[in-house]
Design a protein that fits this description.
This protein has a domain at 4-55. It contains five helices and three strands, in the order βαβααβαα. The chain has helices at residues 12-24, 34-39, 44-47, 59-67, 75-78; strands at residues 4-9, 30-32, 50-54.
Length: 81
């Protein structure tokens, strides 16, 4: 089955965060080019970064989830008391 790339990141740790977010929402996701870029990080731009890929049937929902801005959820954590 062909997978669809829904996001790409310069560094593997960024892609892992996105993959974990998708999986927490029930969307199966895999990373492409993760190990190559881990070993040769200078190749990241040439390869198009570490890609987060999902099944085609989940692609639109995955892009919607990844485009959400949830930074307001942390606001209370960092406000002085």
């Amino acid at each position: 089955m062909a997978l669809v790339t829904v996001a790409s990141f310069s560094f593997p740790h960024e892609a892992h965060i996105a993959r974990a977010k998708l999986e927490s929402e029930g969307i199966p996701a895999v990373l492409a080019d993760e190990f190559t870029i881990s070993m040769q990080w200078l190749y990241s731009n040439a390869l198009g970064g570490v890609k987060v890929q999902v099944p085609p049937s989940c692609a639109q929902r995955a892009m919607d989830i990844l485009s959400q801005d949830n930074s307001d959820l942390l606001a209370d954590e960092f406000e002085p008391e």
